[in-house]
Design brief:
Elements: E1 7-9, E2 14-15, E3 18-21, E4 24-37, E5 40-50, E6 53-54, E7 63-77, E8 80-98, E9 101-112, E10 121-132
Antiparallel strand pairs: 1-4, 2-4, 3-4, 4-5, 5-7, 6-7, 7-8, 8-9, 9-10
Length: 137
């Protein structure tokens, strides 16, 4: 293992919610990351869709939410690539920071499913983000 030449970009993601009702949305998401270390590099792409249920029924501006989701991670590096599907759920809350923006924070639990290239794995992660509302305020 090399010592001090790790370079990484990414780790975050972008999503867009399409509201079906004041308490439910369909939210496609994408994340891309790049890491370089020890003369090698890897790229990871994650595509998914979440289904947030907003308990305050206020178009996702405030309050608690539960968000099940599914997705696929695709990684490649050093001439090899593989994919792994995942299912998960997030729980969190939103707090309005202005008329058209809210702060979101919570915890996400994902289960990565086993396949020919990968063993199953469980991941727990905290998150924080900003929601910008383009339609209803």
């Amino acid at each position: 293992m090399c010592s001090s030449d790790l370079i990484g970009v990414g780790g975050g993601g972008v999503s867009m919610g399409f509201f079906v009702s004041p308490g439910f949305a369909v939210q496609p998401a994408v994340a891309l990351s790049y890491t370089s270390c020890c003369g090698g590099s890897s790229t990871a792409l994650s595509l998914g869709v979440n289904f947030p249920i907003y308990l305050a029924h206020d178009w996702g501006h405030t309050g608690a939410f539960v968000s099940p989701g599914i997705g696929l991670n695709r990684s490649s590096g050093d001439g090899e690539s593989n994919s792994q599907a995942f299912v998960g759920i997030a729980v969190g809350a939103k707090s309005k920071i202005s008329g058209g923006a809210s702060l979101a924070f919570g915890v996400r639990l994902d289960e990565f499913l086993s396949n020919n290239d990968n063993a199953s794995a469980t991941q727990i992660a905290g998150f924080i983000g900003v929601s910008v509302f383009l339609g209803r305020h």
